[in-house]
Amino acid sequence: MRTLRGQADGRGLKIGVVISRFNGEITDRLLEGALQALNDCGVDTDDVTVVSVPGAIEIPGAAKKLANKVDAIVTLGAVLRGETEHFTYVCKAAQEGMIRVALDSGVPMTFGVLTTENSEQALARTGGPKGHKGYDVAKDAVELANTYKLIG
Ligand code: INI
Fold this sequence. Notes:
Strand content: 15-25%
Low-confidence stretches: none
Mean pLDDT: 96
CATH topology: Rossmann fold
Helix content: 40-55%
Bound molecules: 5-nitro-6-ribityl-amino-2,4(1H,3H)-pyrimidinedione
Number of helices: 5
Largest sheet: 4 strands, parallel
């Protein structure tokens, strides 16, 4: 038996980050954490492409355009239930779209779209007591890019 698990070593990898601006106070923090993680993993700043889109619904389309240009894609967004009546619709569109792009393209993608009740819960997950989702999903993307290379 052998287990294939890539290292979180970003040297030589090209990483795309798609970030939505809706609830920007939170998504800015997600981006800050993601960029920190990519730097910690050794990804060269010149190998990071950040694409900014209006809201979570636009993330899959931008990810699809980026997919064949990078080794992995990190998606970042924030959907807050308390601030939208169509919370479920936005979450479903973003999530299903991203999964479709990831499967169709074969490019590893990680899902850093926070779906929380309110901004306190989102802030707690972007450098607060619940950790940092932006940091975690960026590190996961680096690992996954290397795992896919191992699979061949
Ligand atoms: N987009 C988000 O990223 N988060 C939200 O909480 C949100 N709310 O509340 O509606 C949201 N809506 C915008 C949507 O993603 C699109 O940008 C918009 O519908 C234009 O296509």
